[in-house]
Amino acid sequence: xxxxxxxxxxxxxxxxxxxxxxxxxxxxxxxxxxxxxxxxxxxxxxxxxxxxxxxxxxxxxxxxxxxxxxxxxxxxxxxxxxxxxxxxxxxxxxxxxxxxxxxxxxxxxxxxxxxxxxxxxxxxxxxxxxxxxxxxxxxxxxxxxxxxxxxxxxxxxxxxxxxxxxxxxxxxxxxxxxxxxxxxxxxxxxxxxxxxxxxxxxxxxxxxxxxxxx
Length: 214
Description:
Layout: E1 6-16, E2 27-33, E3 37-44, E4 47-54, E5 57-61, H1 63-72, H2 79-92, E6 112-122, E7 125-134, H3 136-141, E8 148-154, E9 159-165, E10 170-179, E11 197-198, H4 201-209
């Protein structure tokens, strides 16, 4: 719709398989404001860095460290991957939209199977635990039959913790803060300090692909 929407998320990695020990417990901060602003503070190559899109402006801090990371990126990229990246760049610079039309959101619940897994306390707070899977036909078409999610929902219906488990990987994220303010100030998407690197769309996608990687 025409109305602006915002989201602020603070979370940390509670546990995960196949990640180096130093990434366990790492925090991530996400701020989003429709139609075209998103900021992510997350571990990239083992360091906490900030990457942001504010309309047509793309930037990251600290610029000196990020420049070094980008220079390490492989330059010999297959043509097939280049074409895919160009398509991603074109989509990225458009408005932030849901992956499905708003009128179809009412049908989302039928795509999942949800089972009650009882009650459990998280950090002293009672939570309802739900096990979630895609419906079998959809899971098969997406080759995701062996993927499951477990959600811990607080008394206020807010998401407290989320775990994802697949055939070769599993991880749990603790939600420290999840709010949906009416709007966020423009300053939320402006860099602090002077060590700022202006990015191309290709560089932005390269950094986002490195989130959480050693």
